[in-house]
Amino acid sequence: MFSPTVRASLSSVVILCASAAWVQAKPESAETVLDHSLHELMQIAESNKGATPAQLAKKARPLLERLFNFESLTKRAVGPGWRELSAEQQQQAVTLFSEILIRSYAARFDWHNKLDIQFAPPVDVGGGHSEVAAVSRYAGNVIHVLYRMESSGSAWRVYDVVVEGVSMASNYRTQFDAIRQRGGGEALLKSMKENLN
After folding, report:
1. How many angstroms separate the CA atoms of 35 and 157, rounded?
2. Domains, the chain, ranges and CATH?
3. Which residues of 169-185 are buried (b: 16+ CB within 10 A; e: fewer)?
4. What is the pLDDT of residues 12-57, one digit of tens each?
5. Backbone angles phi, psi at 113, to 5 degrees
6. Which is nearest to 186 in space by CA: 82, 80, 98, 89?
7. φ, ψ dihedrals at 27, nearest 5°
């Protein structure tokens, strides 16, 4: 049997451990997720300054896969035609489209210029969705961005980005829908593959 003193000490340890576990399990806000991800992305960029867009995309992909819900974003970008794709085609579309987005951002980003983003507090829009407005200052330009995020388990993930009032998902949907209507799902996948070559 433990003495009262030892029991009290053990109880304190258990309570502290339980409190620590609760703090670690407490989900971050949508704003905090974006802020932390940005800093981590900048660290990746700093340590890979000479990398090509494709190489940088490979390095950044694990982080961006945690930040973005690429399946949800791809569904929105493909639009109504998503239901016409087979399960295999849908998976291919998610893989290809995510690579297009990651490489696109990597190619446009000049790592010599400092990126400064100020995030506003998240706005709850219902249904497990939040929107986070941000002002981005980069290379002498000021850009207004809105991150649309959804709760995925215990984390927030981005499912669309609106830049200066233009939705990324909607912008791609206009292009993808025209291709799909002309040639179906295979034509859409072919177009995505060609985009990466």
Report:
1. 12
2. 27-196 (3.10.450.710)
3. beebbeebbebbeeeeb
4. 333 333 333 333 445 688 999 999 998 888 888 888 887 887 888 8
5. -95, 135
6. 89
7. -65, 145
